[in-house]
Amino acid sequence: MPKRSSTARGREFGDGLRKAIAKAGFTSRALAEILGWDEAKLSDLINGKGGTSLVELGVLLGICRVSPAERDHLLSLFPVAHIRDWLQHHGPDGFDPQRTFVENLTTAETLVSWELHKLPILLRTQAYVRAELAASGRVPAGELEASVKARLEMQQELRRRSLKCVFYIHEVALRLPVGGHDAHVEQVHHVLRMAVRLNIVIRVVPTALGAHVGMSGSFTQLTSEKYEPLVCVNLENSTLFVEDKAAVQGYETVVRTLDQISLGEEESKALIVALGEELSGEGPAPQMAS
């Protein structure tokens, strides 16, 4: 079946509009009657086919009593909903990359993640998340717990959907004692518990390998039966959602090479077990994987 022609912006606009209409308690037919539209016009707007002005959209959002922040967000997306690739700047006046990621996560069939220095956010414990955010200096102390909660909610979406996931992790990321010794022990054991789930595969890139294909940085790829693949790249002060076909294919090449150079699934589990025993004082320190 051919993939639907859509963009991350367009999907977020359509999803936001559907939620606004549902929250206001309208059916599509009832709202169209209030607006004096054909129901098909409303359907075209939601599905990214245009046919509506910015002013008409503003009236619709007003009738649905959409909050000012959500109203401004949807109005900003409307003129650019057809544009691929989306750089979202972080900060109080910027976009919310977690929203975009989670909304695309809900339609994904598979997730492939590569992490160079940190553990994937979907595998982190609460203590790891808190320590990483606190060390980043980007989150004010008064907002820390809310930020931790938001990231843990993203993990819940993964658990609800039993999404097929492949996590490629560098050995350095596993050995980094984020949050201190006790938090590190808890985190390594958590990764091992996640590794035995049927929908999760964890592959470790050994430190002894030296230079490798993933040195340019971490990323996450989402694939879906409905839509073209989407790659998410987290940067220092922004998040890039990559949709350009040639660029996405470049990331796919990296994934294929990571698959060739990483330890096998069982070898990776053995390394994690050995690290957990070392940290817990239950066995000799394991050698760096070769």
Sum up the structure in keywords.
alpha/beta, 434 Repressor (Amino-terminal Domain), single chain, elongated, 7 strands, Endonuclease, Chain A, 13% strand, DUF5753, seven-stranded mixed sheet, 2 domains, 290 residues
Spatial strand sequence of the major β-sheet: 1-7-6-5-2-3-4
**Individual helix count:** 12
Gross geometry = elongated
User: Architecture of the largest domain, according to CATH?
Assistant: 2-Layer Sandwich
Structure description:
Residues 17-71 form the HTH cro/C1-type domain. It holds the Pfam family HTH_31. InterPro entries: Cro/C1-type_HTH (IPR001387), DUF5753 (IPR043917), Lambda_DNA-bd_dom_sf (IPR010982). The protein has helices at 8-24, 28-35, 39-46, 54-63, 68-77, 97-105, 126-136, 144-161, 171-175, 181-195, 245-261, 265-280, and strands spanning 86-89, 110-115, 164-170, 200-205, 219-223, 230-234, 238-242. A 7-stranded mixed β-sheet has the order 1-7-6-5-2-3-4, with helices on both faces. It is elongated, with a radius of gyration of 22 Å. The protein folds into 2 domains: 8-80, lambda repressor-like DNA-binding domains (434 Repressor (Amino-terminal Domain), Orthogonal Bundle), CATH 1.10.260; 86-280, 2-Layer Sandwich (Endonuclease, Chain A). The chain is of the alpha/beta class and 290 residues long. It has 12 helices and 7 strands.
